[in-house]
Write a structure and sequence with these properties.
It is a single chain. The protein is mostly beta strands and about 200 residues long. Helix content is about 10%, strand content about 25%. The strands form 2 sheets. A 6-stranded antiparallel beta sheet has the order 1-8-5-10-3-2, with helices on one face. A 4-stranded antiparallel beta sheet has the order 4-9-6-7, with no helix packed on it. The radius of gyration is 17 Å and the shape is globular.
């Protein structure tokens, strides 16, 4: 059950819902198409490359990230009101979304064997946008999973959706996600022959 609080109302702590901003964007006017599906890209397990090698219109990509960041910040990063795609602009304005600083964007190429154990970002918010990916044999390979690190969250009957259990973003080109930086994120191991190109965004505190 989703609870939307009226303006000025204080959320009940036990019913927190930690928001995340997830959307699918059109990459055609943003990214170069340099890796057709099924193309294997040799190189190190994780490689940082210049933004302009895969991104043709950095301004457009930045705008997409900023929209997601503003949507997320409108609902509070510590929990409160869950965000949904059907919540309209008037409601977002009602909650007076705060201004956010510029984004730090970087491009990473993930290859077979790459993985990241559970870790929290050192920024207020963290986001990802998958630019390209070869299709894996196992659907979770190269996925980003996000978890609530608070003690006891997995054992709580109603910790707020979706936190308290794993929330996963599979490497699908055009998928963009922005989450509070205090949440724990991992990268599932990238399988043999798989290549994932992802833009990572950080919003500094």
């Amino acid at each position: 059950m989703t609870i939307l609080l009226p303006p000025g109302a204080k959320p009940v702590t036990r019913l927190w819902e930690t928001a995340c901003a997830v959307r699918t964007i059109d990459l055609a006017p943003i990214a170069f198409n340099q890796m057709p599906t099924g193309t294997r890209s040799p190189g190190p397990q994780c490689q940082t490359i210049p933004l302009d090698t895969v991104i043709e219109n950095a301004g457009a990509l930045r705008k997409e990230f900023m929209t997601a960041v503003i949507d997320l910040s409108a609902y509070g990063l510590q929990g409160g009101i869950v965000t949904h795609s059907d919540i309209n602009e008037d409601l977002r304005k009602t909650f007076n979304a705060p201004a956010v600083p510029d984004l730090d964007l970087s491009v990473e190429v993930w290859r077979e064997g790459y993985e990241v154990p559970q870790d929290c970002a050192d920024s207020e918010m963290v986001g990802w946008c998958f630019i390209n990916a070869t299709k894996p044999r196992h659907e979770d390979s190269g996925s980003i999973s996000v978890l609530d690190p608070r003690a006891g969250s997995e054992g709580t009957a109603m910790p707020g959706l979706p936190w308290g259990r794993e929330y996963m973003f599979r490497p699908t080109p055009g998928l963009m996600a922005v989450v509070p930086g205090w949440l724990t994120s991992t990268v599932r191991p990238v399988e043999d022959g798989q290549t994932v190109v992802v833009v990572v965004a950080h919003v500094a505190t």
